[in-house]
Amino acid sequence: MTTPTKPVGAARRLVRRAPQERTADQGRAARGGHAARHGRLTPWLFLAVALISEGVFTVFPFLNTIVLAFTDATRLKGGAFIGLDNFSRMIHDDRFWTALQNSALYMVIVVPCMVFLPLLLAMLVHTRLPGAGLFRTAYYIPVVSSTVAVGIMWSWMLDSQGLVNQTLKALGVITEPVPFLTERWLLMGSAMFVTIWTGLGWYMVIYLAALTNVSRDLYDAAAMDGAGWWRRFVSVTIPGVRNTMVLVGALSSVAAFRVFTEIYVLSGNTAGPGGSAMTVIMLIQRVGTGLDAEVGYASALSLVVFVITIGLMIAVLRMQTRENEK
Amino acid sequence: MRYVRRLALATSVTASLVLTGCGVGGGGGDDGGKAQDAAKGKITGSISFQTWNLKAGFKGYFEDVVDTFEKKHPGTKVKWIDQPAEGYADKLSADAAGDTLPDVINLDRSTAAPLAKAKLLLDLDEADPGAGKDYLAGAWKSNDWKDAGGHYAYPWYLNTGPTLYNTGLFKKAGMNTKKLPTTYDELFDQAMEMAKKSKKQYAMIGQLPGTDVMAKYGIKVMNDAQTKYVFNSPEGVAFVKKYVELYKAGAIIPEALSQDYVNEGKNFQSGRLAYLPGSSYTVKELKKNAPSVYKNLAIQPQITNNAPGMYIQSVGVSAHTKNSATALAFARFVTDAENQLAFAKEADVFPSGSDGAKAEYFHADDGSDAAKVRVLSADQLDKAVEYTWPGTSEAQKTDLREQIALAVSGKKSVKKALDDAVAFANKQAQDGK
Questions:
Q1: In A, which residues are within 8 Å of B406 by CB distance?
Q2: Contact B266, B158 (CB under 8 A)
Q3: Which residue in B22, B90, B100, B111 has the most chain A C-beta atoms within 10 A of its own C-beta, making it the best mutation to test that interface?
Q4: DSSP element (H, E) containing B329
Q5: Full-model pTM
Q6: Is the pLDDT at A323 greater than 90, yes or no?
Q7: I want to staple B148 with a disulfide (CB 3.0 to 4.6 A). Which of A324, B53, B116, B422 is the partner?
Q8: Do B22 and A176 touch (CB under 8 A)?
Q9: B105 pairs with which residues across the strands?
């Protein structure tokens, strides 16, 4: 009887079984190689559904987008190869620069808030005080609410005759309504507020998980050394959740750069007066949908967003690697 | 092994690139003389018929139409599909891209034009010559796309609406409700008066003007040959400057800068606006949703310095239908005089058949608001025109609204804003988008 020296796949798993079974199984694997082949195929069979759906709904459209970016395709007719014309048009398109500026600004303001505010919130509810559970739930409610529903609610509140303006008027703070939804910067600010309000609970939960990994002993030791609340926060909490902060920074920067729903809903799909609060994703949606969609140009815009997003992720990952090496 | 993997990867990428081709859609192209033969086949087999947000109100009517057609032509089967108003153009574009357009499609001018240009609709001049005589001349003409070289849809129902006023706001502002505006100049003057008297509490206007309003005011939108947009004329600039003044005075609600016509209706319903260009449908909605506004409603003829505006719904037939004879027969059936009249009565709209709104029903005023709107609208129907132009697209409408918003909010001069809007519109028209 031949005994295989290097059992593979299913055979390798079989060798961990009882000795009396082992000999028979090894024999079968060696005889036909059927189990070995079966072992190689099994993971692919499990992965097949996911791989096919990824291929059809992600990889294929992605490759299609790359091709279309170099054509003048519209929704109703196939396009011709036009080289870099779409990218050159982009450079001269004021709407693109406005959208890029708005998306970048969104990221610059929203990301620091998303990194620090949920951490503070997590620390507040990471106590054993009575009622902390209630606050955890309350902060998480916006996360499970539909962004569209949240956006509509805030658009009613921030309307020129909405609750916020009426309250400010009743209190005598203002005489004329504040144009929260009809002035570029105020509209952007309102959308950022909604993004932060909705996202706080989500990132708070991530931080809560990270905080449970920070040893209580470190806080006790720091306290014994006379460290106050701030010192403990800077010297114990932040180093303890640094990797999570990088993760939150990466996730929120990509999400902020790709902001769409908040501006779309608050501006009633108009991107504010004169389209001045347009973001890059809104521009892609506007150019690339409808019967007169310019699919080639929309694909070129999508490709640029993809490159920027990948760039952001690489920058964050490098930052994390550098921190870990220190 | 590594070589095989690389080869497989390279093959799959190349295949993707080749398969994706250079486009998403593809349904377009020359129909190679198919249109002439379209009506010649036997009326049999299954077709699909898509309407635009009509199921909620008129389910029974359409089920009857389908039943009658199927009985009249044994062996036929009509699958009726209704799509919501929201995203209708997007649904059509997805269907067109996937070559799955319904056989018979409810369209308006802006959704029909791109499909016609892409030759995704049957050219009725070839498929059904002489059909035009069965429809109102104006309605048939409005479905004539010179740049696409033919007629691509049967006119269906027409709508033209009155002007609605919330007299409650006039009274609150201390204004005379017996002298409601009848011209644009009166509208602008009274809007200023209302803003001043109510200290900007109430506003008259809720939407920035599009090319249809410009045309109704008397501004030339396109040149006579209909090849170039020309609304950046001194008259156009003077017209938009009026809106700048009105906005500064508080006669236009702030939301008008960044919201479209849907919100104008909502703001009128909520009692924030005193003026709304409406329709019989709007009156019904107000009665149901805003009784306090409805009780102060005044119904007046449409404000215009020119011909009144109207909107046409049409029915087109997909160029790729497998049962073209059945699809054409059904499209003709839905839009024939008898069915049009029945639907017009059901939906408070007007037929586009050659008799138009001559039937007694459209001119009998029984004293109800619905009848008042109907009679007013029927009277202005003979003179009404559809204010859309070759190359008019959603993108162009959006761009104009944005440019005027920039001008009104002082971010751009009126002249520059209109020059930019005209340049964009001309480019769109030239590109055939």
A1: 273-274, 276
A2: no
A3: B22
A4: helix B324-334
A5: 0.80
A6: no
A7: B116
A8: no
A9: B50, B316
Q: Tell me the C-alpha to C-alpha distance, in Å, between residue A96 and each of A262, A311, B239, B412.
A: 19, 19, 30, 18
Q: Specify the amino acid at residue A207.
A: Y
From the list B20, B90, B393, which residue is nearest A67 (CB)? B20
Say if the Cβ atoms of A81 and B22 lie within 8 Å: yes
Task: Give me the residues of B, 65-124, that contact A with CB < 8 A.
Answer: 89-90, 92-93, 96-97, 110-111, 114-115, 117-118, 120
Of A75, A182, A268, the CB nearest to B24: A75
Mean residue pLDDT across chain B: 85
Task: Give the rounded distance of the alpha carbon of B42 from its chain centre.
Answer: 34
Q: How confident is the model at residue A135 (pLDDT cuts 50, 70, 90)?
A: confident
* Residue of A73, A273, A293 lying closest to B257 (CB–CB): A273
**Cα A69 from Cα B47, distance rounded (Å):** 36
Q: What is the pLDDT of residues B279-325, one digit of tens each?
A: 777 888 888 889 999 999 999 889 998 888 888 899 999 999 999 99
**Helix extents (H) in chain A:** 9-14, 19-32, 34-54, 60-68, 85-91, 94-125, 132-144, 147-158, 163-170, 184-211, 216-224, 229-232, 238-240, 242-257, 261-266, 280-288, 295-325
Residue among B329, B348, B397, B349 nearest B156 (CA)? B349
Closest by CA to B285, choosing from B277, B293, B274, B275, is: B293
Q: Which residue of A has its CA nearest to B99?
A: A76
Phi, psi of A243 (to 5 degrees): -60, -35
Q: Look up the CATH number of domain B3-160+311-380.
A: 3.40.190.10
Domain spans of chain A, in order of start: 93-325
DSSP-assigned states of every residue in A296-323: HHHHHHHHHHHHHHHHHHHHHHHHHHHH
- Choose the closest CB to A275 out of B115, B262, B402: B402
The domain B163-307+389-431 having CATH identifier 3.40.190.10: the answer here is yes
**Regions of chain B where pLDDT drops below 70:** 1-39, 146-148, 260-262, 356, 390-391, 431-433
In chain B, residues under CATH classification 3.40.190.10 are: 3-160+311-380, 163-307+389-431
Query: Are residues A74 and B433, on separate chains, in Cβ contact within 8 Å?
Result: yes
Taking Cα atoms as reference points, which of B112, B154, B151, B148 lies closest to residue B135?
A: B154
How confident is the model over A40-98, as pLDDT tens digits? 888 889 999 999 999 999 999 999 999 999 999 988 877 889 999 999 999 999 899 99
Query: Chain B window 226-285: which residues touch A at a Cβ cutoff of 8 Å?
Result: 253-255, 257-260, 262-263, 272
